[in-house]
Structure formats: structure tokens, C-alpha cells
Design brief:
This protein is an alpha/beta fold. Helices cover 31% and strands 28% of the residues. Strands 1, 2, 3, 4, 5, 6, 7 and 8 form an eight-stranded mixed beta sheet that branches.
């Protein structure tokens, strides 16, 4: 009887842990302040099937524009290098993100350097790169395995999820009015534990998906 009660309690704890797994969208407490206004953001699905937060001016039509000023992505706020994510890696992540996004933008619209009619201005920033402990897997929802999982988490030996956060906006160059805002979180490869370095390769798929979405997105 006692064993049954313990098992049920363990199952309940495990289900609660699963419910608390990281969300696929950016939580409000993760908003960086890069965008001046976060109101109106709604969950939607990107062309690659990712859940993102987006707001689009109701009057916006992509076929009204045929030029884009691409301002390179920056980090906001400026990140502090760590043993898991060094300064060189941060530079490589930013460079790769800019090369992919700019190339994708150039595939669908003419890139220009000066504002004018039928022109959009892009501003964007990588607002976070981090790792978080994975939630308990279903097979771990048994008393002994939960003790092992808890020990792994406490000692830094639990598998970690890598995440990249991006915020961006499009501005009408003629009116200086924001016509679109996007806030998104992408999940990269897992790393063995919190001491395992995050690399560019850990986040390439996230960045590639963002670039593909930039190429395929359209509102008529």
C-alpha cells in the first residue's frame, strides 16, 4: 500500500514537472526591451511550423514594398561571456545569423541602403542565448529514476536544452511607422550538461529556420 502511494505521488510530481517544461514561445519575463511596444503580440505559426509571437499592422500588405534596408542584427542587451558560451562563440553566432537572414532577405526583396518609397527597414536583435534543464521524461516518472534525475540536476549532469531568442520589427521607411513585430524563441540541440560548451552548431538549425521563415513569409 505504501509503495502504491509513493508511486502515485511520484507520477503526480512527474506530470507536474512535464507541465512545467519550457514553452515554445518567449515568456513575457524574457522580453528584452529591444522593442518599444510588446502589445498586440499573438501566437501564430511560421511557414516552417514554429510557434512565434507576431503583430502585423492591419493595413500592411507585403506587395506594397519591393525594397528593404537590412540593419544587421545586434545583441540586446550585450551578453556576458561565460564558460559555457564564450565571446568567440557569441561573435560566430551573430555573424552566422546575419549572413543567413540577410541572404534570405535578398532572395525575395531588393536590399538598399537609403530610405525611399516602397521601402521597409528591418531592425532586429538576438536578445538571449541560454540553456535550461530538460523536464523529466515519461520513463523517469518512477521513484528511483526521479531520485537519479534530481541528483543529476543538482550536480550539473542533466541534459540541457539550448535556446536562442530573437526580436525584430519592420518599419515603413516613408512613414517611420512600425508595421510588424516578431518575438520568437528557437530550441537548438541539447548539450550533455551545464558545463558543456554551446557552439554555433548547437543553434544553426534555429537560425536556419528563422532565415527560411523570412524568405517564405508573406501577407497580401
Amino acid at each position: 500500500m505504501r509503495t502504491s502511494i509513493i508511486f502515485k505521488a511520484a507520477c503526480l510530481s512527474g506530470l507536474l514537472a512535464l507541465a512545467g517544461c519550457s514553452s515554445s514561445v518567449t515568456a513575457p519575463e524574457k522580453y528584452s526591451g529591444f522593442l518599444k511596444d510588446y502589445s498586440g503580440l499573438q501566437e501564430t505559426t511560421s511557414p516552417t511550423g514554429k510557434t512565434i509571437l507576431r503583430w502585423v499592422d492591419p493595413s500592411f500588405k507585403s506587395n506594397n514594398y519591393d525594397k528593404l534596408i537590412y540593419n544587421p542584427l545586434t545583441y540586446y542587451p550585450v551578453p556576458k561571456p561565460s564558460t559555457q558560451l564564450g565571446a568567440e562563440t557569441l561573435d560566430k553566432i551573430l555573424a552566422y545569423a546575419n549572413s543567413q537572414l540577410k541572404a534570405s532577405a535578398a532572395q525575395r526583396i531588393q536590399l538598399v541602403s537609403k530610405p525611399g518609397p516602397r521601402t521597409l527597414i528591418f531592425h532586429g536583435a538576438i536578445t538571449g542565448v541560454d540553456s535550461s534543464k530538460q523536464g523529466l521524461q515519461f520513463y523517469e516518472v518512477v521513484p528511483v529514476a526521479m531520485i537519479v534525475a534530481g541528483t543529476q540536476a543538482a550536480t550539473g549532469h542533466r541534459t540541457m536544452e539550448t535556446n536562442l531568442y530573437l526580436e525584430g520589427e519592420l518599419i515603413d521607411a516613408s512613414t517611420n511607422k512600425v508595421v510588424m513585430k516578431v518575438v520568437r524563441k528557437g530550441e537548438g540541440k541539447t548539450v550533455s550538461n551545464e558545463n558543456t560548451p554551446i557552439t554555433v552548431d548547437s543553434l544553426k538549425t534555429v537560425i536556419d529556420n528563422m532565415a527560411t521563415d523570412a524568405t517564405m513569409f508573406e501577407i497580401k
